Amino acid sequence: MKEHREIKEILQNKGYKYTKQRESVYEIFVENRNVHMTTEEVYLEALKVMPEIGIATIYRTVLVLEELGLISAITFEDGITRYELKKEDDAHTHHHLVCTQCNKIIEVNVDLLESLEEQIEEKESFKITDHNLKFYGVCCDCRQESEGTKNEKQ
Amino acid sequence: MKEHREIKEILQNKGYKYTKQRESVYEIFVENRNVHMTTEEVYLEALKVMPEIGIATIYRTVLVLEELGLISAITFEDGITRYELKKEDDAHTHHHLVCTQCNKIIEVNVDLLESLEEQIEEKESFKITDHNLKFYGVCCDCRQESEGTKNEKQ
DNA sequence: TTGACTGCAAATCATTTGCACTACG
DNA sequence: CGTAGTGCAAATGATTTGCAGTCAA
Fold first, then answer.
1. Over the stretch B52-79, which tens digit does the pLDDT of each residue have?
2. pTM assigned to the model
3. Contact A132/B137, CB-based, under 8 Å?
4. Residue B121 — very low, low, confident or very high, per pLDDT cuts 50/70/90?
5. Which residues of A touch B100 (CB under 8 A)?
6. CA dihedral sign, ordered A107, A111, A115, A119
7. Sequence-ordered alpha helix ranges (H) in B3-151
8. 3-state SS of chain A: helix, strand, coil percent to 5?
9. pLDDT (0 to 100) of residue B147
10. Residue A4: enclosing H or E segment and its boundaries?
11. CA nearest B94: which of B136, B132, B37, B139?
């Protein structure tokens, strides 16, 4: 709600100009919390609000929003970059389950990675600043389906 | 060594034909164990051995080798797919440290993920079949460098 | 022999960029 | 006003695909 107001200041604090298109794109992410959107999808949403907006603007805006820490990017096997609204709180415990059958993405929050990170930092003398953990498998919906139909797997 | 021999049978067992180009590409991966190669890089290597080979063949071969379980793909932020020889043994404990300064990729082997997976499988009723874990940070070389020079960060 | 495989060039697809125009500060 | 930001179209870069010729089985 109030986040809509802040975007202007956030932009200006970092030396960016406030523009309608940036606000609109940001709102799309706010309205689609927890949805991983491709640039194309964001563009299609943006068109509803600003029919003249160009997709290049979306690409550029998304980079700015990421730089501002408002959204975060993830790339799955298809190679297409997707973005979602960033929730500061769970940054380090926020992982993805990717269903290899229906491509659904499920969020999980677990933070068992801390001890692992400590181990690695010591062993490799590598200063870890971030991580990215994805699990692949079959979601509960698809498991039930395949149990029901008992079809060939693929 | 003997792996070179097996490729023919592996291909044929899965209904693929054995070809010189497939063997050559596979050999490149064997010779570059632990190196994450882009298709372009594999192509350049292949050219040394088979000057007539086309890059489309590399793209197609790499898919076959992946399908056969001989190599595995990873994608980093640059969106380019890289492949490396798969080592059956450490499939589940093989992770990557990505240095955000020099882009070096370091392998780590730790298997603290099992208990995490069990937790998630139970909590989400999601059958995990694979995972992908990357850590981002600064490798020991870059840490020393920045300590030495004490330059601006970027 | 014959269909899978290859090489080449053209096609795709996501993303980037050059440029003239617009509008934020 | 001056410049960052935008829209558009063309450029790029990785990957894919159509097709005619080649070769493994």
1. 999 999 999 999 999 999 999 998 888 8
2. 0.84
3. no
4. very high
5. 129
6. positive
7. 3-13, 20-31, 39-49, 55-67, 113-124, 140-149
8. 45, 25, 30
9. 65
10. helix A3-13
11. B132
